[in-house]
């Protein structure tokens, strides 16, 4: 036995040994580089506490913060035909769908739900950019139609959170046909005199911008969100001119009258409640209930008898 190689390690080394730290405890802000603790970041709705950079957020996390108590009911969406074009590039379309479903835990790129927001009944739909770039598919078209039909049925406003790179190329013309379909859905809300509010998040581009994302009664955007149809590089190459700084960003569009508001995500819920109640002709939001006053037993007042006449007194005596 070689005593140099075969020895018992001192136990004290285990005290100072390196411990494995989970990778998801900290997240680096892509804008300022600050390391953010995951709980602090989620409590702030994925907004950097140092520079206010708005990071991506899933539809479920958004709905948890939007609806009262995070309570909402999902609305069923009709399932479209799977892989109608038998599309294949580097991967088959069904394989890409399975990979996206495994990555996000969702079945498709849009989530539709109903519930109360500030005690105001609403229907909401949100796109998930992490699911194949939030691309507009037949399912997304079905989801917006289902949301509009449910809003008309319940006479509720519809709030839509857009985040997409355009139509889904794997569905070809069928994906592009969702532009007129969703336009019809928005028109249903208009005819029913129900508000349709669009919140444009980063990024909202392509056919989504050319259809339902720009047909709202009120357009609100998150700070520094990229919003446009064609890419800035394509536009520069087409017109052969240098685009101004901040082109296609939310603040630029607000200055040029395309948007109504640019609102931080942490302040968005309060503003949506105010706008919805105003458009629906409802009273101002009830922030909280005051306790009912305690009931105090009041003493019963004594009733004084009226003096009787002398004749009545004498008759009563006899």
From TrEMBL:
Enzyme class: transferase
Subcellular location(s) of the protein: Cytoplasm
Cofactor stoichiometry and binding remark: Binds 1 zinc ion per subunit.
Pathway listed: Lipid metabolism; malonyl-CoA biosynthesis; malonyl-CoA from acetyl-CoA: step 1/1
SUPFAM superfamilies documented for this protein: ClpP/crotonase
Origin: domain of life: Bacteria
Mapped zinc finger ranges (C4-type): 29-51
Catalytic activity reported: N(6)-carboxybiotinyl-L-lysyl-[protein] + acetyl-CoA = N(6)-biotinyl-L-lysyl-[protein] + malonyl-CoA
Record field: compositional bias (Acidic residues): 299-312
Residue ranges, annotated region (Disordered): 288-318
Classification via InterPro entries: AcCoA_carboxyl_beta, Acetyl_CoA_COase_Trfase_b_su, ClpP/crotonase-like_dom_sf, COA_CT_N, Znf-ACC
Its EC number(s): 2.1.3.15
Residue ranges occupied by any CoA carboxyltransferase N-terminal domain in the UniProt entry: 25-294
Keyword Lipid biosynthesis: yes
Key words, A-Z: ATP-binding, Cytoplasm, Fatty acid biosynthesis, Fatty acid metabolism, Lipid biosynthesis, Lipid metabolism, Metal-binding, Nucleotide-binding, Transferase, Zinc, Zinc-finger
Binding-site residues for Zn(2+), renumbered to this chain: 29, 32, 48, 51
Family matches, as Pfam families: Carboxyl_trans, Zn_ribbon_ACC
Principal localisation: cytoplasm
Gene Ontology molecular function, alphabetical: transferase activity
Cofactor names: Zn(2+)
Biological function: Component of the acetyl coenzyme A carboxylase (ACC) complex. Biotin carboxylase (BC) catalyzes the carboxylation of biotin on its carrier protein (BCCP) and then the CO(2) group is transferred by the transcarboxylase to acetyl-CoA to form malonyl-CoA.
Similarity-based family: Belongs to the AccD/PCCB family.
UniProt subunit comment: Acetyl-CoA carboxylase is a heterohexamer composed of biotin carboxyl carrier protein (AccB), biotin carboxylase (AccC) and two subunits each of ACCase subunit alpha (AccA) and ACCase subunit beta (AccD).
Protein name (database record): Acetyl-coenzyme A carboxylase carboxyl transferase subunit beta
Organism: Parasedimentitalea denitrificans
Source lineage: Bacteria, Pseudomonadati, Pseudomonadota, Alphaproteobacteria, Rhodobacterales
Gene this protein is translated from: accD
